[in-house]
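Format notes (please read before filing issues)

Several people have asked whether sequences and structure tokens are stored in separate files. They are not. Every record keeps both together, in the order shown below: the sequence lines, then the token lines. Line labels are part of the format and must not be stripped during preprocessing.
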Amino acid sequence: MGALYMRDPVGTELKSGPDAGEYMGHTFDLFQPHLKMKMLTVKANGDEMAWVNECRFGAADMMYSIETFRWEKDGTLFVKTYYDMPSRVGKEDDPYDYLLADTDQD
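Then the structure lines:
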């Protein structure tokens, strides 16, 4: 069975293995009350796929995200997400702190 590798967003620390899967599940749950997404396009070629989404976080302005997925023959999945982040959000920072800053969280 393959591994999972994720850069969310590209430019931040690589998440891998069970931590990446846990991270994906956590972020899905974390964003559901705040995120509205509209899928604009999906492209799939062979073992790779990409999609573009229009996203709104709470009252924040609309932004676009591009997500790419690549599956290896052994089942390993590489996920990369691309969306605008301010320069003050560094490689070691949690990008979700920035994205959720204007939302009402418990």
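For reference, the curators noted about this record: DSSP finds two helices and six strands in the chain. The chain has a mean pLDDT of 82.
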